[in-house]
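Ticket #4471: structure export looks truncated?
Reporter: QA, pipeline team
Priority: medium

Steps to reproduce: submit the single chain below to the structure queue and open the exported record.
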Amino acid sequence: MERIAGPYDVLILGQGAAAYGAALYAARYQMKLAMFGEEFGGETAKGSFIENYPGYLHIEGYDLMLKMKEQVDALKVPVISENVEELRREGDCFLARAGQEWYQGQAVVYAVGRERRKLGVPREEELLGKGISYCSTCDAPLYKGKRAGVVGGGNSALKGALLLAKYATQVYIIYRGAQFYRPEAIAIQRAREAPNLIVLFQTNVVELKERDGLTGVVLDREVNGSREMELDGLLIEIGAEPRTELVRPLGVQLNEGGEVIVDKLMHTNVPGLFGAGDVTDASDDLKQTITAAAQGAIAATSAYKHVMAHPDACHVHAIGFRLD
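Actual output as written to the record:
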């Protein structure tokens, strides 16, 4: 095996809000830690304006993540800009491989988020934050007085459309199926009652129109005599896959949706492994930047207590003050 770096008290996997929340608290507990991840900022950095994070009336998602990074950098937390590609548990310790290097840690905070399903149409990526969004809760208020669409037919798509309908003048639900996919009955009722919400079944978006941002979409069938539809925003709610490939071999418990099961203190069923953020089943109805950051803080605190309870498990030196 290649040279092993460490030992560390905790290895934090991810560079989103949950990971930075964990890094902030772990550093303040004077733990020896390292963060890993190629993609800075996670889902928050990909979003547009955020108006529901305490302390900021209005901030770009990327700028908010830069603020979190600035705070962690001030505490001299090492960030390895590579993804962990393999995670093992040996005895009471973990080994993580990033690039050609192995890192040993007594605890792991797993905060790698989830992969949003994409439409797969041209210019989707470049219009992200310029009319394309994957988070209705985050971005619905941006379309006050405008026309917007929601792609998807599940419960999250329907709830997102209902939220959007509170702000937009006209909302279209665009879904490839002939009926909604297992939504809550109350959501269907409210959709029928919303005067500015129109459902287009058996319809697909095949092209995005843009001019300094999204201006509309092209559909695969005619609606009101045209395949083109003017829209100021398109929220894509077709699901996401939790990134659990690293922890499945460890025997971590997952729910039916493939999310890592955690308790209220972010423990998984694997001793020393803690989850936080969108990859977990915590806060299922409110997967937001604020909840992810809070879960990271809780996970780091639980990791700290775990390390303090087993101070010699990985031959880790004393790590500062002890929690009462």
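Status: closed, not a bug. The export was complete when the record was re-opened. Leaving a note from the reviewer for reference: The longest strand covers residues 4-13.
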